[in-house]
Amino acid sequence: MAAIADVSQAGQAAPGPARPGSRRRSFPAWRWLILLAAGAYFLIPLYAAFRFAGFAAFGQIFSQVGFSDALILSVKLAVVTTLITLALMLPTTIYVHLRLPRLRPLLESITILPIVIPPVVLILGVLQVSPAQLKASPYLLGLEYVILAMPFAYRSLDAGLRALDLRTLVDASNSLGARWITTLWRVIMPNLRSGLLSATVLTVALVLGEFTMASLDQYQTFPVWIVAFDQTSGPVSVAASLFALLVTWVFLLAIAAIGGRAGRGGASQVTLFTVTRQDRGDSR
Amino acid sequence: MTQATAPAGAPAPVTEPAARPGRRGLAAVLRGARDLAGLVPFTAYVVLGLLLPMVAIGIGAFQNPDTGGFTLGNIRAATHGIYLHSFAISIELSVVSAIVPGILGLLIAYAIFTARRGAVLRRMVITASGVFANFGGVPLAFLFIATIGTTGIATGWLKDLGFDPYSHGFTLYDLTGVMIVYLYFQIPLMVLVILPALEGLRPAWREAAENMGARTWQYWRYVGGPVLLPAFLGCLMLLFGSAFSAYATAEALTSGTIPLTSIEIGSFLNGNVLAGQENVGKAIGLGMVLIIAVLMVLYVFLQRRAARWLR
Known about the structure:
The complex is a heterodimer.
Chain A: H1 2-13, H2 29-61, H3 67-98, H4 104-116, H5 119-129, H6 132-135, H7 139-162, H8 166-175, H9 180-191, H10 193-209, H11 212-216, H12 222-229, H13 234-262, H14 275-282
Chain B: H1 2-9, H2 11-15, H3 26-37, H4 40-60, H5 73-78, H6 81-113, H7 120-133, H8 137-148, H9 153-160, H10 175-199, H11 203-211, H12 216-244, H13 248-254, H14 261-269, H15 280-307
Helix pairs in contact in B: 6-10, 6-12, 7-10, 8-13, 10-12, 10-13, 11-12, 12-15, 14-15
């Protein structure tokens, strides 16, 4: 049906020479219907949550028992995770690009594993093997979040590095007498800003929203607190959920905006669950 | 896995000047070893943080928790009774949560794909999909509790219209509810992963088909459909995996009352274990990993098929 409409329209509305590539397809009613239905399904729960919570609940979140402890723990974990992730993945990715480009596919498949392995299984194994001192510390979670963040961090950095002429930059810097740390800090990192930023944002978003491992490791991070607090006050839990979502969204929209500005070099396609899209892009 | 993803990056080495002529002397081997040294921190981290725990699961699944000896008892327990049932329920949930959002996501992706490139609507849908696809876990559960929970806002609207879903057998807090909630992140995920495949359908094919007098249904039956099918099935595998390993949303929504494998493993960790069954959780975990591994093999195979035409 769409094609018939297309053909007849194209016949009438294109008196000039047919421009190749400009497919002026009509936008029939069924498509609007689908998009409207989808819009309703996605927006009604948001609206309902705002109504359910009420404005008062938003004000109350911050004064609830355990809120600040949980949020502080989550923020600490986010900072630790991000620092370790960058300290580990940035040199590794640069190194592979410069010295071992043939290992890139291997690294790509290793770093996809944490997405494939269910977190509930991973934490079961982690609690089995980790030494007692580590198990007694919430930072065990931070160490494991580094693993969970690898797929996003690696892909963001890899995409950023591929957009650079890394070899030339490094050679130029070396020939001017810079040591490697200077090259890393003053040449590579400034050029890699958007990749670094998206790796950071995705890692932070992941840590702030992670529930499975934290709850099973018995630490009250922010999402764990939201669930525990539901026993006390439903509306406050809903308000806290919305608060968490809004923070995450602002982060994600920020990468989308930065990625859009940076053009092809930006890693805007990497979102928490869509690294596969990036993979497909690689093969081109 | 390794060999599986290789084709994605395979073209890269060809363009590298690194294709040194054959013969590798001792010096070259030594240099190779020195080059690999730079990967030691990363490798060590992955071995300790990922490989070791998974190996522990693999070993623990075959270990008697009391004597430490070899046993198939854990596997037997994991594949019988309530645990077998939980595998069945998890798979059922994941199949439904792959197919339904798969089809809906395809429709939405198609609806925006036919809009002009760079159109505002299209960019909006893609950005929104990126945001909503990341939307899982606890906040999502609460969003739906506020909407169609027993005291939810939409439940109230329906009651005002004279229809109380909760007196007609509906409840958000069981399997149906979990399926409805999963749609919320599965549909956008599908939009994001299927869109590149749709974009791979070249307009020239459609024009060629139309020039030869093909109707729309004929184009989809003989050209577009077959080209798109492997990519579509591959995306379904991905959605299946995403639903299968999800834990947080179901746990927060049902407080762990529905028998899903992920929730069963969680309850092992929360200490609800019978004596002598401590390692059954590991056997269940091993089962989950095996199922996911099969899916990934299928996924890679389908991606390769898809790449034959869509690039």
